Amino acid sequence: MAVCVAIIGKNNSPKFFTCLNPDEELNFQYKVLWSLDVVEEKLNAGSKGGTDLRELYLGMLYSLETHKIYGYVTNTKIKFIIIVDSTNMALRDNEIRSMFRKIHAEYADIVCNPFYIPGEPICSKSFDINIKNIMTGTV
Amino acid sequence: MNKHLYEIPAVIVIFYDLDWNDPLWSEKMIECASRVQSMRAALEDRHTRITVVLIQNTLSLPAGEDLLASERAIALCSSCELNAQSLFVLPHGDHLQGYAVRLENAFYEFCQNIYHNEAKHVKSHKEHLNKNTHQYLYVRHQFKMGMLYELKQDVHTAHKHYTHAYNNLLEIRIVDTNALEIRTVAGFLNYKLCRLMFALNLPRDAISQFKAHIDRFKNRMGFQELTFEHYAWLSKQYSVFGDIFDEAVKLGLPAVQTQHPGIYYQQAAQYAIMRKKSCQELCSSVIAYPHPDPLEGANQLEFYGQRPWRPGKVTAEPPDPQVESNGIHAIQFLEKQINHSNIIIALYGLAISQYKTYRCPRTRRHLVLQMADEYYNSKDYGKALTLFTHMLWDFRGERWWEILSQILDKALKCAYLTANVQDYVLLALEVLCSLVTTSLDEKRRVYENLNRILKKQIPYGDPKLPQDVLQNAIILWQPVFSSQPLNFSLDMANIITCVETKARFTKSTYEVDQNVTVEVYIRSTCPFPLTFTKVSVTVNTPEYSSEFAVTNWENVSLNFHSFEVKRFVIEFMADANDINKEIQIGAINILLGNQAECCLDLKYTALPDANDNHVELLHFKYTGNNKVDFANIRPLSSATIVPRDSKLNVECIHPQPALLGEWYEIKINITNDEQFSIKELKIELGLVEETADVEFSLKPAGQPQKLPLALGRTDYLDKKGKYSTNVFLVAHKLGKYQIQIKITYTLNSDKPVFSIKTENIVLPVVQPFEVTTKYLSMLMCEIEAFHVEEEFAVMNYVKCLSPWPIVIENTSFKFISPVKSVEENVTSQLTGKMFNEEEVGAELNLALCEKSLLQNINIGQYTIKWKRQNGYSTTTQVTMYGLTCEWMPVGLKMVAPAHGFVRTPMVLSYCLQNRSRQIIQLDVSVEASEAFMFSGYKQLNLSVSDNTEDVGIQQDQLRALIERSVPTHLYVMPQVKGEPVMQTVYAPKKMTVVN
């Protein structure tokens, strides 16, 4: 179960942000912001290799005392960030990976929605519910 | 530690001036020995090694050869009680450096031995120790050994001993009373270990050692009352580790983004904050320093980390509660005196610089914010405000509105508390923006404060701020409004505000006599109504910038409700000086407040937002009932002023294409179709691409003029008036030429407007005709070579290529030597003929060549004088290139009547000519064809010379001569009826030999 999910646009502005405990949102935003540094660094290192078919899943970005942060970047440089409680041992790498894949699918759906304008923050309610479900693992 | 580092030497070196052959040898030896003795006495029982170095002026011989030297050396050693190895000689000669290095190595070796022995000595103590009673000593001994080995520069062994010491230390049970001591010692050991591991190039081990160390001691708080001490220790651990790490990085250790010193400095800062918090909790009640001073003698303690009020006591003894609490009070009191914020800020500073090095801009920003928070906490609002405003920019750029809102809130407080009006207003405008997520109540408060400032009233402070702070702020605010009207110019270019603007030119080009229109759209996203006093636009031209105020006041008010968009129009006349220049909207200025009290000049740039990359998609956005779709207005911030579109009608009449070499006439007719009469009309003609192949003139066949050519001018032309002129040109090369006609004039309207009209003509130039030359023999057969003195015909064909009919006025041949014409009265056969396209005319002229030629050379000019129908006559010269000319010694010519009659005799005479200087012998035979009978010589020999071979005529040359000179056929007409008139019968003539 993740505690926070963020979708960051290609110019590093947040498009979607949700976390289980709304009081901690600001704190999580800072955490996501830190991890963006690592994402940028990884992307820069990746682009030097010149491989187009790179792995979208970036793995663990930060391991803090309380939380672990995972990252995933689509080919269009949309970044997905998941924050997991570091006490949560049930989540393996594979689960995180599949969680990202589900979020990616949800994101693809929302982009296909003609009422959504790419680049704008996502405010769809159903999207929020779907992501929350993915976070809590009820899907 | 101090003892070993600074007080006890390992080796003592006594330098003494003494030569082996010194005259006062024995006295000096005794003096030296006494020095050594006194030194030894001073050292007591330490294991320090004493050595003596003799500084000598004379160069000594190799060892063993100088008997005196070795003898005296032994004597010296014995008198000083030294062994022979401790005596050195330093000759004061040329190669001082070499000797110095050798001495250094020797001393180094001694040191190492000494420390090794010391360490062994310490180790020998170990046997006497008991694990249960001497736990502390175990640690002490191991540490000592580690230290000694480190001094010996044996890093590996030192590391081993430190590790042992650390492990021994971990075995000690930690209770409140000894927590500080163990923590301190563990800190030392950990520092040593990590340092050595970095030195051994084991950074991973160092980091994991440090992490394990922190994990072990994190929860060993010690006294509840002294938690801050624990946090101070943790903070110190982190910052020290950061230092070691940083040092290692400077020595070449590569650090990465996720593992670098900055992380540790950041942690250190975090613990420093916790220290501060616990200090605030625990020390607030302590007011006075207890008496008597329980901390007396804190610096002279024998062991690190023990409490001064119970030095050297073992844990087992029960502490005296009164002394204990006094001591704690004293420490708490001292803690309270410390400026924590400074420590925290310094640590943040270190961390920020590290994060900057390791490319973590966002983390760095976060740290800067925390630093700003700390400044805020330490009541340094000015610095905090500076940091906050710097950070706002980045978050704005990346659109983290929530974080931005939080920062704005803090920054606004800082601005309020420092009474910084300009920043306060700027931040207030930003807070009121719809994107900022501050609560509506808060926004209302800010809005009211903004209005108060506009009325020169002190704004209300945040009710959440403590009272005394507010009091100070109000005192600061008072002088701000006492001065004259406040005027601020605020640059809104880089911030998001509650007022958004867009400006655009309605067209990308404006003609000089048109009004330039600028549309300004203003949207207020403030949740409360806003009223402006003025809207204007600054327009920049390359030379100057000017400000234009909104012109459509009447129908648009300057009151804005929430999310209202209004359109303002600004119109002005373009300046004629700006023709072909770009004008730009430099800024949009909105005036808020009134001039008398407080007035804010909000300055926006007109440049489009570079961040929007999917502007097209905004069309899908639902804009509600707003009339103006603000999001979809594309700013157009620059426009070009162009000359006005001329309504002059220019007609160029000319029969295309031009023919090569002719004077070609272009007629230009200008009709004034403008609304007004015009004056100062000038016509200029030029070529688009400069070339020397075309010449212009005002008259046919006139003097070529320079370009651009002024074709004509008139001072006045009526409405519907006409003006015409013409120009002549001659092209010397084929091709296409672009001719530009530029007409400049001034319009006779209310405001004289200068106008330009250009007209381009594309003119192809073609050849009028083509001349081909053929050379024929007298028998009208084409020949391949001329022969000297033999006549030939020059046949010129003129093929007309021009689409227009061409009249040939005259033609003439002009031969140059050695070719000459053989015709006396030449009249051109083509004169007066007219040719249409593709028609061919031919002309023949007889000529002969007087000299043999080996090359096809220029034999003359063929001149054609021609013109178009109704055109101007032109002369074209064509060069004729001849054939090679061969020399034949023999010439042959047959003279025959034009025709003969059946059964009527006619005379054929063959004329043979010898052109050489020799006599030629020829065999001539004449054979009749079947149709003829003939009389005369049938076969004869001619003019026999002495030697025939010299002339060198080949038989086939003669045959060719006959073929080209003797006609093969003759017309024979039927016999006329009646009496045939006998033609003159030639009497057979005697052959004469031409000399």
Widest sheet, order of strands of chain A: 2-1-5-4-3
The overall pLDDT average of chain A reads 82
Cα distance, first to last residue of chain A? Answer: 11 Å
Helix segment tally of chain B: 19
Q: Would you identify the regions of chain B where 5 or more consecutive residues have pLDDT less than 50? A: none
Oligomeric assembly: heterodimer
CA-atom Rg of chain A in angstroms:
14 Å
- The overall number of domains of chain B is 7
**What form of chain B results from the Cα inertia axes?**
elongated
Give the proportion of residues in helices of chain A: 40-55%
Q: Total domains of chain A, how many?
A: 1
Using the 3D structure, state the CATH architecture of chain A: 2-Layer Sandwich
CATH topology of chain A: Beta-Lactamase
Supply Rg of chain B.
60 Å
Give the % helix of chain B.
25-40%
- How many runs of DSSP E, i.e. beta strands of chain A? 5
The proportion of strand residues of chain B reads 25-35%
Give the CATH class of chain A: Alpha Beta
Features:
heterodimer; A: 139 residues; alpha+beta; Beta-Lactamase; 3 helices; 5 strands; 41% helix; 24% strand; globular; B: 995 residues; 7 domains; 8-stranded mixed beta sheet; 5-stranded mixed beta sheet; 19 helices; 39 strands
Question: Topology of this protein?
Answer:
The complex is a heterodimer of chains A (139) and B (995).
Chain A: E1 2-8, E2 14-19, H1 25-49, E3 57-63, E4 67-73, E5 79-85, H2 93-112, H3 125-136
Antiparallel strand pairs in A: 1-2, 1-5, 3-4, 4-5
Chain B: H1 2-7, E1 11-17, H2 25-43, E2 49-56, H3 67-80, E3 87-91, H4 96-126, H5 135-151, H6 155-171, H7 176-199, H8 203-218, H9 227-250, H10 261-283, H11 321-337, H12 340-357, H13 361-377, H14 381-398, H15 401-417, H16 421-431, H17 440-454, H18 467-482, E4 486-491, E5 499-505, E6 509-511, E7 515-524, E8 530-540, E9 545-549, E10 559-560, E11 565-573, E12 582-593, E13 598-604, E14 638-642, E15 648-653, E16 658-659, E17 664-672, E18 678-687, E19 694-697, E20 709-717, E21 722-731, E22 735-747, E23 753-766, E24 769-776, E25 785-787, E26 791-800, E27 806-815, E28 819-821, E29 834-835, E30 840-849, E31 858-868, E32 874-881, E33 884-886, E34 890-895, E35 899-901, E36 909-914, E37 922-925, E38 939-942, H19 955-965, E39 971-973
Parallel strand pairs in B: 1-2, 2-3, 4-13, 6-14, 16-23, 25-33, 35-39
Antiparallel strand pairs in B: 5-7, 7-11, 8-9, 8-10, 8-12, 12-13, 12-14, 15-17, 17-21, 18-20, 18-22, 19-21, 22-23, 24-26, 26-30, 27-29, 27-31, 28-30, 31-32, 34-36, 37-38
Helix pairs in contact in B: 4-5, 5-6, 6-7, 7-8, 7-9, 8-9, 9-10, 10-11, 10-12, 12-13, 13-14, 14-15, 15-16, 16-17
